[in-house]
Amino acid sequence: MSNQPVTDYNGLTEEQFLKTYDAGNYERPSVAVDMLIFTVMEEQQDNYRKLAEKSLQLLLIQRGEHPFLGQWALPGGFVGIHESVEEAARRELYSETNIDNIYMEQLYTWGDVQRDPRMRVISCSYMALVDRKALTVQAGDDAAAAAWFEVSYNILETRREELEQGIRLETFVEIILQNEQARLSGVVKLTETIRGHVRHMDREIVRSSGFSFDHLLMVQAAIERLRGKAEYTDIVFNLMPPLFTLSELQRVYEIILGKELLAAAFRRKIAERVIETDESTRDAGHRPSKLYRYNLEWNLT
Question: pTM for this one?
């Protein structure tokens, strides 16, 4: 083997190349992270004999700075020069929820040239699932407030078009986020083009009211991912407390999937994922129900 150093077409070694390299020759976009933090909340009933309703909720912050001053947005921030993208995501998550070591996964990278009016910003979005009882939300330094918003996700229309060598599927999705303070709404058009084994997906904002930046697209993508993974993984258990009833677990699945489930079929499906405990509920006005916990061994089998 030759001991001669490897050189490029200019005769430079890597060390020589790096000494003369000028990063200023290229414009550099900024990189940000945006966090989609979901939880499931109970809505208390006036009648104590009725079980509390549950709803999927998303954490938003009210922007305290331009652009979109006073409007609601996903919590997030810029990636520091000496931290990785995931480190920045976990830092932002901790700053908004005061907790760490929870479920988080990268969702998508958003790079539309005009997505931020300040400058060229590429954003990596992350999805986190939290048990509401395990956290205390606080607004970050650049936010006026932080609040949970109830999520509504409805498919308005689907279209199918035959192409010469494939098909095009169009789906129109309406998303509403609301609480006592504000109501945000919008419609996203999903266009999936399929030619042979090649699939291409485009997302387009048809209508948006109250959403900052392109965060409506991020919310749609996160709900779509959450629904898909709820079908074949144990992701939903990240939204549950340590002990829960099977009825509570089924209701959370129904909220995420947007449909009712048959109790017998649901219990067969999740039988290996839960372990029955010796404890029961003690709610006034209701019959005691067995409490279960997540089977940590399920993913290892």
Answer: 0.89
